[in-house]
Amino acid sequence: MTEEFMQYAQNLKNDKLLETEYLYQSDPVSYFPHFQKNMSSICENIITLQKNGLLGNISYLEYTLLHTNLMQKKYIAEVRVYHNKWYFDARQCIAGHFDFSSLFVRYHELWEQLSASRKRFPGVSAQEITAFVLSCASLFYKYVISACRFLILSCINKEPFLSLQRTDTFEIRAGEYMAYTEPIYTENKKRTAEEALEWLSKRLEYDYTYESFAGLDLSHADLSKASLNYTDFRNAALIGTDFQNARLTGTRFCQADLTGADFRNCVLHEADFRGAQLNGACFASASSFYGIFINLAWTNPGYRCVNFQNADLSHADFRNAYIPGADFTGAVMNGTLLQQDQLRQFFLSPQQKQAVCITDAHL
């Protein structure tokens, strides 16, 4: 493969990834109905297998990318389930499929345009183009992982998911079959608040990523400076908990009680506070980024906006916070402390603008 062709192929790949980013961020909710219907069908299949004695309690459910499908230009993931031995489960089975074609539109265009360009680059074979395009698949599949992580929360608190027979530790993952995968949802029914607090006190660098502390009472804990990226605190009691200077990228706080919690100087990229109780919480000098940081070169899918939908932010303090694009839809903001220039940064309803407390005072 010539250097000239490789440069052309790399530039085209970058362009297609950036176009995928734009499509993904512009209409994220459009994937909800398809994903929910598909997840329900998968769960019903698993329940039937379990009732018939063909499948026991499951520990893993995985959305699996297969290059054999891609070679046939089929943008479909197998959804596999396993017991606690994971890939060593001799009875692993395919519980369904997930069509991710809508997230691979630009990937298909990349393949077609590179194939059509062969006349411009003598000596480049069809096999070399296929090999290059397949090497790009995992980059586009990161959007499937990101979408599944965002959409899964709409499925786990209702039937038929609730009727699945699951082990005490359970994960939903997405990635390449027998290769790198990422957790998009975790459960740990065995973990107690005492065990969690003892473990968190060790301030380990990466160990808490993707872990679940859902439903635990960690009120007044000192979690300052902790790395809690993609950690799950849904429905947890976190009253007065100290998160100062913590890294909270993708952290889930949905329906948690965060009354009086301290988020000063936190990094909040893609954090999810939907339905949380945040009365008196402090977000002073917290920051987040939305989308891709540099729009010229693609490295990973961009961050979603911080989500405060339907949260109670009464008397919360946002002075000096930089959280562009944050979603405050339906949030209660009685007495929420903002600075004048933040009214341009935040998209608030007329009622919310009347309810907030505007101050020019800085910290």
Would you kindly provide a written description of the structure presented here, covering whatever features stand out?
Helices cover 29% and strands 13% of the residues. With 363 residues, the protein is α/β, with parallel strands linked by helices. The chain has a 5-stranded mixed beta sheet with strand order 3-2-1-4-5. Helix 1 (3-26) runs antiparallel to helix 4 (105-116), helix 1 runs parallel beside helix 5 (126-151) and helix 4 (105-116) runs antiparallel to helix 5 (126-151). The mean pLDDT is 93.
Shape: globular
SSE string, helix = H, strand = E? HHEHEEHHEEHEHHE
What ranges have pLDDT less than 50 throughout 5 or more consecutive residues? none
Computed over alpha carbons, the radius of gyration is 23 Å
Main sheet: strands, sense, barrel: 5 strands, mixed
Number of helices: 8
Tell me the quaternary state: single chain
What is the gist of this entry?
The protein is α/β, with parallel strands linked by helices and 363 residues long.
What are the defining features of this structure?
363 residues, alpha/beta, 5-stranded mixed sheet, 8 helices
Set out the fold topology.
Elements lengths: L2 H24 L5 H20 L6 E8 L1 H5 L4 E7 L10 E7 L5 H12 L9 H26 L14 E11 L4 E8 L4 H8 L136 E3 L2 H4 L4 H6 L1 E3 L4
Parallel strand pairs: 1-4, 6-7
Antiparallel strand pairs: 1-2, 2-3, 4-5
